[in-house]
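Blinded run. Sample ID left blank on purpose so nobody reads anything into the name before looking at the predicted structure. Input follows.
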Amino acid sequence: MKNGLGQEKNINYDFVDVMKFLMVIFVIILHAGPISNLLEQNGVVIEGFMPIDAILRVPVPFFFIVAGFFLYRKMGETILDFKRIKKYLGRIFKLYCVWYIIYIPWIIGIARHSEQGFILGFLYQILLFFTSGYFHLWFLNALMVAVALVSYLLYKKISIYKIIGIAGIFYAAVLLNAPYYGVFEVIFPPGGIGFSIVQFLAKIFVTSRNGWMEGFFFVAIGSGLAFKWRYLSIKWVMLGIISSAILLFVEIYFVDFVAQCSFGGADCYIFLVPLSVFIVILAIEIELPASLYWIWMRKMSMLMYYSHVLWLNSLRYLNTYCNWGLGSLHVLLLTIFGTLLLSAFIIKYREKPVFSWLKILG
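Blinded prediction complete.
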């Protein structure tokens, strides 16, 4: 049994690796299309919202919280290891640049179809490199920004509770401007200063998927777990997960009536926060017997995250221009299989001298 999070020694976190692998599968399912769409396109008609679609929003907060926890767990709240933080940021930046270059053909494709023309469209995509990145790569961009923000505030001797509170303000702004936009219009009516400020931010960031709006809050929570948390009984953790999931389902049903998103997408919800936190706590507190399978999952998970859009884009291109006639479910299954295959290949061969360059992929 663990007596505290972030303070233990000789503790394995293998269940975190299992959960990361599962969360990547969730991400692939989400990007392939909501479950209801997948079923409908394959002959099963679903009316209304499906609860599983809400669960598919958990992975990114999970990744942020886990990243914050593992980065800061061997540090003190007032004793930071800046060498470790700098090395971590450097590694994430290299990954971000490498995978951004890999996705350049699709980025150029987006620019070609821009209403403003190719040149302005491409310049706009370059701007996104600094604010949110290409599609799923926004996570790496946001992680760098979030870690830098949390580390800077800790350096300034601001307590982790205050940092979480500050980050929570940014998250609340996203809530008001995305799922709760109807409420936002009441608080900040069009034409007012508050409305203008948020609209200006929306033009800069385009989407809430960035380090300030989402990453900051969840990385701060992860560092809070590393510094402050103590063991919580599994039964209470499970109760927290079940309760938060039910409340999240209810919340999404509710905001479906008021959502008119100004930022792109509505990935942020109030009860997504406790649900993600409880799932991370469960993953951290459960210990598994040693196995090479967990190590394999650890190595595979993020490679699958970075590369799965290559398969999705390619399969959708073949579907559109080569008339392959694949349904969404087929695309999903082929994407999972192809991503597993590519990631396994990279892991197996990157240790060989001739393929050592594969290490830059993650």
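Unblinding after everyone has recorded impressions. The mean pLDDT is 83.
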